């Protein structure tokens, strides 16, 4: 069961088709497994159609938008989970556990898939944290959007299970730990490289791109 979701504005941007391809992919993967957010997007699309048809000049304030979503949530029944082939599997052509992972640092392996999204300025990367392993302490020079594809990790914000969604920035300094008995694999979009903050690992920052 997913516990961490995209925020309201991200769902609105997704329903309006305003997100970049990799950001839309992260939300699409989350929606495939989260009936709660899927119902919210369906409602947003219906609301947008009404506004476009009848009140083209109306603009919604953030407070009004949140109020509408709150009313929608009161009566939402979880929609049935669709059975569809993994979008990510189509993109990569292989199971995520069979990819050519590259060991990065300690328990962390990575695979850069930015080239799958031509014309994008942000880095798109798969990250694998070995079961029971720890990632180096780090913060972010920009914004990082992440969805958990397999396993789970924990940091000071809690436990993030499969299909959970999280956005981090330069205010977040964390050291993720893989929990459970399987490797934790995530898909992340980075607007800028991470910044290592550990006592010794910070010496590697000039080499991180």
Automatic annotation (TrEMBL):
Cited CDD domains: cupin_ChrR
Organism: Marinobacter nitratireducens
Species lineage: Bacteria, Pseudomonadati, Pseudomonadota, Gammaproteobacteria, Pseudomonadales
Name under which the protein is recorded: Transcriptional activator ChrR
Pfam families: Cupin_7 (PF12973)
Chain coiled-coil ranges: none
Superkingdom to which the source organism belongs: Bacteria
Stretches assigned to the ChrR-like cupin domain: 94-187
InterPro entries in alphabetical order: Anti-sigma_ChrR (IPR012807), Anti_sigma_zinc_sf (IPR041916), ChrR-like_cupin_dom (IPR025979), RmlC-like_jellyroll (IPR014710), RmlC_Cupin_sf (IPR011051)
Listed NCBIfam families: anti_sig_ChrR
């Amino acid at each position: 069961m997913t516990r961490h979701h995209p925020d309201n504005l991200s769902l609105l941007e997704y329903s309006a088709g305003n997100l970049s391809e990799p950001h839309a992919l992260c939300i699409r993967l989350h929606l495939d497994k989260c009936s709660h957010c899927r119902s919210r997007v369906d409602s947003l699309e219906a609301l947008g159609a009404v506004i476009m048809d009848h009140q083209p000049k109306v603009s919604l304030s953030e407070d009004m938008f949140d109020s509408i979503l709150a009313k929608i949530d009161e009566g939402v029944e979880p929609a049935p989970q669709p059975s569809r082939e993994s979008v990510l599997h189509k993109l990569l052509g292989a199971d995520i556990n069979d990819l050519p992972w590259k060991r990065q640092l300690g328990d962390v392996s990575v695979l850069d898939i930015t080239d799958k999204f031509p014309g994008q300025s942000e880095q798109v990367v798969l990250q694998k944290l070995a079961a029971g392993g720890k990632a180096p302490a780090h913060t972010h020079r920009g914004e990082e959007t992440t969805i958990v594809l397999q396993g789970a990790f924990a940091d000071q914000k809690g436990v993030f299970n499969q299909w959970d969604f999280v956005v981090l920035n330069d205010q977040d300094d964390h050291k993720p730990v893989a929990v459970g008995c399987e490797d934790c694999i995530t898909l992340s979009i980075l607007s800028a490289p991470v910044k290592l903050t550990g006592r010794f690992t910070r010496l590697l920052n000039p080499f991180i791109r």
